[in-house]
Write a structure and sequence with these properties.
Layout lengths: L1 E5 L8 E4 L5 E5 L7 H16 L7 E6 L10 H9 L2 E7 L5 E2 L9 H14 L11 E4 L2 E4 L15 H4 L19 H11 L2 H8 L13 H17 L1 H15 L1
Antiparallel strand pairs: 1-2, 2-3, 3-5, 4-5, 6-7, 7-8
Length: 249
């Protein structure tokens, strides 16, 4: 209903908006940078994190009217809003939250291991000291911005082979030094993340975002199988994270 302010620290120009339920959301636009692929990764990553018991702001679908940006004076933002007409993705705005700073806040080994494990599963390249994509809100750690996850879907090349690869970029993870309980977390995650739960998450993806294959069903099946494969070979990415951590400490 109302464009409040852009969040210019985000490369894709997300914005705080007011919706028709009178709540504020951080809106991720389909017309930005990586398009709907970033929204897909955001939705899948956020909901898997929630299944694992991690804190993620409520994720909602948000319909943007084609006329929404007409009164916006900034031409760049106006173009973004026009290109984003249709179904977009929003995260509940955590008013008063501050960016997580590893020099200020110490994360315990269990939570650090959970987040490192999650980002290894999702191949999330964007949780580094330079850009932690975590917030402190009411003294608790919240995860945001999983849009850089699942990067295989930008080309679809050898997606089955990629699904079983170690995640080399985990060496840059901001919480890796504290992640000493990866084996225990891996065992827990194996009990939680069944193929049926992956299917439930992937089923949330709107058909209008799934345009890379002959049918939306086919694309959903690939996302689901990718996650099932990652889960079945989680020892590969857990071992990679452990090697990377040993090199650090």
């Amino acid at each position: 209903m109302r464009y409040v302010t852009p969040l210019r620290e985000g490369g894709s120009l997300p914005a705080i908006v007011e919706a028709d339920d009178d709540f504020l959301y951080v809106l991720k636009f389909r017309g930005a940078g990586q398009g709907v692929k970033a929204l897909i990764a955001e939705l899948i990553g956020g909901e898997i994190a929630r299944l694992l018991g991690l804190r993620v702001p409520e994720i909602v679908f948000s319909q943007v009217d084609p006329a929404f940006g007409r009164s916006e004076p900034d031409e760049e933002i106006q173009d973004l809003l026009k290109a984003s007409a249709g179904l977009n993705l929003g995260l509940h705005y955590l008013s008063g939250a501050i960016t997580f700073d590893p020099l200020v806040t110490t994360v315990d080994a269990r939570l650090a291991s959970q987040i490192v494990w999650l980002d290894s599963l999702l191949m999330n390249v964007d949780r580094t000291p330079r850009n932690t994509n975590m917030l402190m809100w009411h003294k608790q750690l919240w995860l945001i911005d999983h849009g850089a996850s699942l990067y295989f879907h930008h080309t679809w090349d050898n997606w089955e082979k990629q699904s079983r690869r170690p995640f080399r970029q985990i060496k840059d993870h901001v919480l890796l030094p504290q992640a000493t309980e990866l084996n225990a977390i891996d065992a827990e995650a194996r009990r939680i993340l069944s193929p049926e739960r992956f299917q439930a998450v992937v089923s949330l993806l709107p058909d209008s975002w799934l345009l890379d294959f002959e049918s939306a069903h086919e694309q959903r099946q690939i996302y689901q199988q990718f996650l099932i494969n990652r889960m079945a070979t989680s020892d590969v990415f857990v071992q990679e994270a452990q090697y990377a951590r040993e090199a650090l400490v």
